[in-house]
Sequence to fold (542 residues):
Amino acid sequence: MKSSPLVVSFFVVLILGSGLGNALAQLQAGGVNKPGDWYVGEGLKVGDYFSYKLCHVYYKECSEFEINFWISGEKKTGTEEKWVAQTVVYDGNKIVKGEMELGKVAPEPSGGSQELSVYRGAFKSSIVWLSAYATNSPGDASKGPKKFSAPSWGKIGNIGGEQVIPTAIESIKVPAGTYDSVVIGWKTGGYESKIWIVDEFPFPVKASTWTQVSEGIPPQEYRFELLDYKQNVKTDPFSGIVPTPDKPTALGCPQNYDLVEKRGNTKQFTMLVELKYGPANPMPGCEIEWFISFKNKFDQDEFISQVHYDIVVVDDEQRPIRSVAQEEGRQKFFTTSGQVRKFTPVEEEPGTAHYVIWIYGTNPEQIVPPSNELDFFLLDIPIGEAGQTPTTPTIPTTPTTPTIPTTPTTPTSPGNGGCLIATATYGSELAPQVQFLREIRDNTVLGTQSGASFMTAFNSFYYSFSPTVADWERQNPAFKETVKVAITPLLSSLSLLQYVDIDSEAEMLGYGIGIILLNIGMYFVAPALIVFKLKDKKYLLK
Fold:
């Protein structure tokens, strides 16, 4: 029997196609039209000061922190010469202070303060990651300085990995300034990972990279950008900074324990939550270890990606007591993969604690999910004492939606009042819109004397009517939706304050007056003009 040429061609393509992806990875070529070369640490010297905003997937699923380091001197350990870097990390509301030792051939951290160990790991795997390809080793073809015109700097280590190549010359703007950079890039899971480097500058100024996954949306592996850079800093810039003291750990915290498994649909049936936690009876002062999976309720093998969430403790009336995210100085947590491992401190007294996996919704990290996606999963955990016999935790069969007190207390200072109308409108103190308003108030407006004075006057007016309006909203869903539409322009105008730096009273007054005038225009001038135009048109038609 003769084979059809079409059939033969099909099998040839099928056989060759299995290796086509790997072959293409090997054939990739880059290089840019720029003379010279670069390596990690190029031009680094005593007196250099750097500040970066950084996240790495292996530290709290890429939760951002700020790392500042100052090259204070040099040292020699055996035959290895090192830089000594005084370091301060701002991680949410925690300050960590210590020292890193960076190699001179490759400035990877090889020692330093124990307190910085987790941050050193993130630093090594992100800001100095390119030292796997480009180091201060002249004559070493594989790891020496790399030319900008080179077609490839190396290959990602995994099988069939992509080439790491110079792809473009680009002017890049970061908080520290605008730089003429060379983009080093590679493909990961269909996404393009990029690192921006600058000739004769020790470290990259920006990066955005992605992890390798076989399916689904790849999580961010790491990202960072340069916030500040100074040269010839003679005195310790961190001398007046006091680190946050560690909370004392309770004696007798269990080290080996079994995990309790729980699963169920969220209150609104938007997704399935599978979790494991341990120990079964966590003690005050110890930690709970969580493994949380967010899954498709129709397909339990499919993880839901890009979930915005929090871990919240509520009282017996389902009112929020504490937010773990806020305790860390964050608005919320985020998981790209839908899989979470987290440790949280136990601050509750012995008895039953009501824990809530609070779900804001799904969206890319920088985009707030719509308020109609709010959902939660409620779990009771018995908080034990040393030597107590473990008991079985329960999930309430008919959980009620966490609420806030309907009669809030009057604030005693401009900064501690609740956003009553917004809370009633969006259903919770934990709603993104409410937290946004709170952050604008606490972090921007109250940062100046004029802003604090404004809030004092505003609060005396606002709290004269807001409890009544909030009650009307809870009693009348139609009125609630009307208020939601009415305050949307206000929220949009206030969001402009996120994109400006307010460092003085004059700037606060300028931007504040501008926002007020903008809202007067939206709420009064524009409607008046519309009414006037309609009346004028009606008159002409007569």
Remarks:
- Residues 53 and 193 are 18 Å apart (CA to CA).
- The longest strand covers residues 65-77.
